[in-house]
Amino acid sequence: MTEGAVIEWKFKPGQTFNKGQTIFVVETDKSAVDIESEQAGVLLEIVHDAGNTVAVGEVVGYWEDGQGDVSSDLVAQVSAQKMASTPAVSGVNVAVSPALRRSTDSTRIVATPLARRLARESSTDLHHVRGTGPGGRIKAADVPLGPAATQPSSSQLILAKRLVSAKQTIPHFYLALEVEVSDLLALRTQLHSAADVRVSLNDLFVAAAGRALLDCPQVDRVWSDDRIVRLGTTDVGMAVHSPQGLFAPVVRGAGRMTVSQIAAKTRPMLERVRRGRLNALEMGGGSLTISNAGMFDVTYITPIINPGQAMILGIGSVREVFRPDANGLPALRREVGVVLACDHRILDGVAALKFLHHFKNCVQQPQRLTTLG
């Protein structure tokens, strides 16, 4: 990630907190992440209020860790400095700094980068916009929208930028085939009656993809800083749609787990996606994501590779089709169409096809997915 949005502060300047308490919450393209304190301290100043989009590495606030024997005088001093840069409120006369006076003239406008971009897109003159941020700073939420526009969430904006970058910078190529799933569906029915955890069709696809990575370690790698990095982790991401947008939590070591173990892992993970509370260990990493759109009645899906990965496997709906049997007679089959998108900087057609056929074999002979890899 390159930026995130501060969506909530749990404390106010001058308040104390304990080790492990959440100080503020950051929204990324994947989830809302609680940022916890590493030790007890006092919040001195909030630099970026809730709603601000902040670049990675930028200071969002200041706190005292107690090592310097923080006193109430220091907290009062910081609060006074902050008040000195705030315009008058409710008839109280407060001194306005020269920098803030200059911000009200026609040559300089104090606004966040996101607010400026939204203003350009909606042809809004920021001179006529009242900022609600610190010192009158204009935030994205302050910019009025056109009649046909809607305000995207911070996570939607970040995701959009990441996907545009992926499509522009990753040389995609695609491979497609049909996979027979009759035995896979029969196994799911069998597992429903025997296992304590309900196994979904997507769990079986994740397990098959993990085993294919285990069988083809040469494709389990990614492009990073103009180098090819070998992973060997058999981690598999899952594209999940939620009210907050599209997320891709990762099942770590999927290739060495049984499908029942994967199902036990994904159930609470999906619940955290719905609540927007994935933890850091469940985001990022791995070379592959599964994008299963079978529940939406689609034959093929051609997805975009997630930035930082090398492949994404799009899976369509189960279709009943007639295929010739060994005697040339029509036989009813149940198939899904799969499309593998690959990063051509890392994979060629031969290596990608080898992986895809291993995935197909795992789906069509699924009993292997019930044993440890």
Textual characterization of the structure:
The protein has 373 residues and is an alpha+beta fold. The chain contains eight helices and 18 strands. The strands form five sheets. Strands 8, 11, 14, 15, 16, 17 and 18 form a seven-stranded mixed β-sheet that branches. The chain has a four-stranded antiparallel β-sheet with strand order 4-3-1-6, covered by helices on one side. A three-stranded antiparallel β-sheet has the order 2-5-7, covered by helices on one side.
Low-pLDDT windows of residues: 85-107
Question: What's the total number of strands?
Answer: 18
Supply the helix-strand structural class.
alpha+beta
Major sheet characteristics: 7 strands, mixed
Note the beta-strand portion.
15-25%
Mean pLDDT: 85
Tell me the distance between the termini.
32 Å
Q: Radius of gyration over alpha carbons?
A: 26 Å
Order of helices and strands: EEEEEEEHHHHEHHEEEEEEHEEEEH
Count of alpha and pi helical runs? 8
Described by the principal axes of the CA atoms, the overall outline is: elongated
Task: Estimate the helix proportion, in percent.
Answer: 25-40%
Strand and helix layout:
Layout: E1 3-9, E2 16-17, E3 22-27, E4 32-36, E5 41-46, E6 53-55, E7 61-64, H1 72-84, H2 98-103, H3 113-121, H4 154-169, E8 172-180, H5 182-194, H6 201-215, E9 221-224, E10 227-230, E11 236-238, E12 240-242, E13 245-247, E14 250-251, H7 259-275, E15 288-292, E16 311-315, E17 319-324, E18 330-343, H8 349-364
Parallel strand pairs: 11-15, 15-16
Antiparallel strand pairs: 1-3, 1-6, 2-5, 3-4, 5-7, 8-18, 9-10, 11-14, 12-13, 16-18, 17-18
